[in-house]
Amino acid sequence: MSILQPRRVDGHQRKGSGPRRNNAVSAAVLFVAAWCLVSIPVRAVQAGEQPAQAQPAKAATPLSQLVKEAEQNNPQIMAARRGWQAATQVPSQVSTLPDPELMVDHMAAGTPLPFDGFHSVEMTYLGFGVSQSIPYPGKLRLRGEIARRKADMLRQQADSVQRNVVQEVKAAYFRLGYVQQTLSILNKDVRLLDQIEKIAEARYRTGQGNQQDMLKAQLQQTKLLRDTTQYRQQMQTLQAQLKQLLNRPQVSSDIVTETLIETPLPFSSDDLLEAVRTGNPEVGAQHEMVRDRSLQVELARKDFYPDFNVKYMYQHTASPFPERYMLSFGVTLPIFRSRRQQPEVAEAAEQLNSARRAYEAQVQQTYFEVRDQFLMADSDSKVLKIYREGLIPQATATFQAGLAAYQSAQQDFETLLSSFLDVLNLDIEYWHTLAEHETALARLEQLTGIQIP
After folding, report:
1. How far is Cα 261 from Cα 441, in angstroms, rounded to an integer?
2. Which residues neighbour 369 within 8 Å (Cβ) at sequence distance 6 or greater?
3. Mind listing the pLDDT tens digit for each residue in 286-298?
4. Do residues 280 and 449 lie in contact, with contact meaning Cβ atoms separated by under 8 Å?
5. Is the dihedral of CA 247, 252, 258, 259 positive or negative?
6. Model-level pTM?
7. What's the order of all strands across the beta sheet hosting 308-316?
8. What percent of the chain has pLDDT over 90?
9. Exposure of 158 by Cβ count < 10 A (0-12 exposed, 13-18 middle, 19+ buried)?
10. Mean pLDDT for the chain overall
């Protein structure tokens, strides 16, 4: 029977059939429908137990395997790592003396022709020399240290990118697990609702019910079909997101998640907050920025001191004349201090103050997020316990009692349908809350660097 078309039931007795035979047949139909309904397992949850778990046809993929795959293959992570590795090559470059300059000089006197008068004029010579610039002591060391701080900052940023990707993989995985579990629940409830409709039809045939009950059951079946379609669309979107994070082709096989299990949080809020300054890569990057700006201030102050240049020259002349040697020493004069060095120091100092404020802002923002995710995880854990030990068992018992009352004409169909929807909605809400709980724990791992077992 199509769930989109109402079933037509002929309420007239067949010719030649008596009332006693009709009642016997109707009672038999009602008994068979009730037996079919009871034979389908209802997702009863006893105290301390989870709702029934779906059994996927395809082998489930562990979350740890996907996390490892993302860390190895995700292009964002690889790009961030390459940027950090490139930055590690900079310190030796900037902390090394400038390349020396080799020079060749020639001087002719009385004629523009090269080497003309070389043996007759003493001022004519061919010279070879080398020149070396030498920054003021400490400048090269500071430049190397600044480059190392920038490399450390890029390392922290690469770690942050990796954690962000891992958290996105986990969040998508948990959401996909919830959607796949919900689809399994909806498929079971469609069959369960079909059995309820058969009971309503059997009651209608015996004159104890009405056609409206059957139409309501069919309407609810259509709504479940709509919900199933929407959840399938969500599942395909999550599959695409996971494949993008894992750098898999979109045409690759879909991922089946393991059944979600509640993970206890063994850390207190204070433990998590304490780990922020040392375990959060974004906070670490801001701290490296502060140290970099502090070194920039020190380097700017060094610019008040001169740099040096040393040059040595050998001049070769003809045999009648003596060889000449020349050593020169030069010094830069930072005489425009009010227009160059002083503004440079002021700029570096303001950048240092800005970096310090940004660091504290990042710490406070992370504190808030850690506290918020901790409260969410703690609240979800308590709500999950209420679902397992209270709401779902109570709703299941109410539905079973309502079913028995409906079969004996002591309860109307509207009440039975309402109790059925309570079981359905509470079951779906349980898995949604569980996915949110696991996502909050994944976010706490990202924010603090603490691995939650």
Report:
1. 12
2. 443, 447
3. 999 999 999 999 9
4. yes
5. positive
6. 0.80
7. 101-107, 125-134, 308-316, 324-331
8. 65
9. buried
10. 85
